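From the pipeline queue, job 12 of 40. The input is one protein chain; the requested action is below.

Action: predict structure.
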Amino acid sequence: MPLSEYEQRVLEQMERQLTSEDPKFATSLQSRPIRPGFRWLIAGASLVVGLLLLIAGVWARAPWLGVVGFVTMFSGVAFALARPRRHGPTGVVQTDGTVGARRQPRRGPGLMRRLEERWDQRRQEHGS
């Protein structure tokens, strides 16, 4: 859903205010750590290097080299499939513009506690 004109103006005003108040923070939000294509390139390179190490380990009858090759391949695939980390503050934006900690949803008693309470109720109802 596109933003209305009012929302776009408010957003631009907030961006200008953020840039004027804390330029270092504003530039840190604009930078991107690693582009997705670069992630795949690194993953592919580590996959090829790991496969070569694995083959070299089998050829040289050195199991430790094969293990290093496998770990290298696995690391490359894990790096490619992992979510990139988000930089900047995380949490809930307060009305005054500060970022507070995320509130954890309030949970009731756990499953075991509820089962114990039901068990106690049944025992009391049946008079045991």
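Job complete. The helical segments are 5-21, 23-30, 36-59, 63-81, 111-125.
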